[in-house]
Amino acid sequence: FQIENEGNSEFVWVRPGVATINREAGMSFMNFAWPNDFAVDTRSGLEFCDGCRNFAQEYRLHDDFYASFEDTDTRTELMLVEYVNTSGDTINILPPNDNVRPFKYWPGEGDPIGPGYGNDIPVIRYADILLSRAEALNELNGPNQESIDLINLVRQRAGVSNINLADYGSTDALNDFILEERGRELWWEGKRRADLIRHGVLVSRAQARGVQGAEPHEVRFPIPLVALDANPSLEQNPGY
Predict the structure, then answer these.
(1) Which of 125, 104, 111 is nearest to 23 (CA)?
(2) pLDDT at residue 152 above 70?
(3) How far apart are CA 162 and CA 155, in angstroms?
(4) How far apart are CA 175 and CA 134, in angstroms?
(5) What is the per-residue burial (b if ≥16 Cβ within 10 Å, else e) of 190-220?
(6) The pLDDT value given to residue 100
(7) What is the model's pLDDT at position 40?
């Protein structure tokens, strides 16, 4: 996901990013992820760069999601769990408190020029294709060895244990695992909402987390006002 790795065979389709002052062509993700007093990551050596910004949102990962990874899972290497702050103190942000930071899109050498970084934004990755095929085959045939093998290709690259066909006795059981594995593989790549909708759990999971106002109609987006104004035959989706 770093600028230095662009053009690798994992990325099937990306939205190109270019570092810009006005953020029109760049990715601003990391500006929302730095802790407000971040100086350097103790694990990777990543430093807060001269052109970096620190926006107020401060994106975080839920503790239960962080805990869902095996200890050997290399996908957690892009999560900030400890850093040195601007006063020189080492700050541990491991659970509890939902404070682990998603550090997936590092700035590159000499980047950013301003608040827009130059990372390409992944749209389709090879791992997404493997997991999507595994899910489709499971829907067609129930638990099957090809689906297991496809999932294990992704897990082997991440350095975690293989799963076994015998552990999944139904389509729903394997689908549930695939949904969680997609979360671990594709976190912060803009896939989760569509995945949760497809599996029928977007609203119920939000409600279980205590999200106020999570309603069934929110599985659909509202039609933009500009589209409604342009076409009087359109009707707004129910609930909006």
Answers:
(1) 111
(2) yes
(3) 7
(4) 9
(5) ebeeebbeebeebbeebeeeeeeeeeeebee
(6) 98
(7) 97
81 C-beta neighbours (distance < 10 Å), count: 20
The C-alpha atoms of residue 178 and residue 171 are separated, in whole angstroms, by 10
Write out the H or E segment, with its range, that includes residue 179: helix 171-186
DSSP class of residue 3 equals G
Would you give the distance in Å from CA 127 to the centre of its chain? 13
Q: What is the pTM of this model?
A: 0.93
Residue 112 confidence (pLDDT) above 70? no
Res 117: pLDDT: 86
124: which strand partners? 13
Nearest-Å Rg of the Cα atoms of the chain is: 20
Handedness of CA 62, 65, 67, 71 (dihedral sign): negative
Number of H helices, E strands in the chain: 7, 7
Between residues 92 and 52, the one the model is more confident about: 92
What does the block give as tokens for 181? 């594995």
